[in-house]
Recover the amino acids of this structure.
């Protein structure tokens, strides 16, 4: 997974920080499926993800409306519900407007 | 490292996504020192960090001004410079305003 190639700001970021339970049942498959589905949604710009003690997944979007649309997709809602009941002991979702960015590449 | 306890939005987030080189020389010590120093800066609200293929560190702040102040702290500037010359093959920094958040805890 590379660093996401995002356009000039402003754009939007969803920071999803989570702590997993010890139950793996279906987790990896669903997580991969959700990334694949998100990537095909209108307004999706990219995603970055890492996990060790905690997991952080940041997805980038062109508008708040398209973030909301993705949140309401039926299969994603089922995954959110299973996340609360099975895979996560805690999580926090933060909806952000990216005001400025800069980077470095060798 | 737990999920950061942040106040009611709006507040600010700095998403720092990076890819490491294979050079570890001084990296862990400096990374830990920078988190410790950031935590003592005015306006610091919390930090979350995870790394496997890529690293994602999100720090939370009360204002853009305090984000700028931290960026300019001398020891942090030296760490940024060493990051470009030694530890990172690429990184991206995104400065965001957190508009909304919600969470779940068992």
């Amino acid at each position: 997974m590379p660093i996401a190639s995002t356009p000039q700001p402003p754009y939007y970021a969803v920071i999803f920080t989570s702590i997993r339970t010890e139950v793996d049942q279906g987790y990896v498959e669903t997580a991969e499926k959700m990334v694949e589905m998100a990537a095909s949604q209108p307004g999706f710009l990219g995603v970055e993800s890492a996990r060790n003690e905690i997991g952080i997944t940041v997805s980038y979007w062109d508008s708040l409306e398209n973030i909301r649309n993705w949140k309401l997709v039926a299969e994603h809602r089922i995954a959110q519900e299973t996340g609360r009941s099975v895979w996560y002991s805690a999580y926090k979702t933060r909806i952000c407007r990216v005001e400025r960015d800069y980077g470095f590449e060798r």
Observations:
- The first strand of chain A starts at residue 11 and ends at 20.
- Chain A has three helices and four strands.
